[in-house]
């Protein structure tokens, strides 16, 4: 079964990734707007993409892989052009949601994360 992790905020994300031991397994990272008290993200695109990504994680992703769900912050934090997720050379986020294979060029952004075929391709070697 895929090992799932959840991280909130940039500093926690950096610390988590620094300490993540993978033994060579794939690591997929999904960046989303933080959740409101209702439990739903403030980001409507993220809300639409979430079930597509979760279905692929549960059905397609390599069982030995890691899936890291990252909440980037509230709307004002994300909209700030100096948001550290935007500036970090490892993430280079321009839009949320973003799904990527850590340390590799494979990446889906925005509406692409709502496309089951594209998400499936990202989780496989196809």
From TrEMBL:
Span of domain Thioredoxin: 7-125
Main location: cytoplasm
Keyword Cytoplasm: yes
One Pfam family from the record: TXD17-like_Trx
Domain of life, per lineage: Eukaryota
Cellular component GO terms held in the UniProt record: cytosol
Protein name: Thioredoxin domain-containing protein 17
Source species: Ignelater luminosus (Cucubano)
Species classification: Eukaryota, Metazoa, Ecdysozoa, Arthropoda, Hexapoda
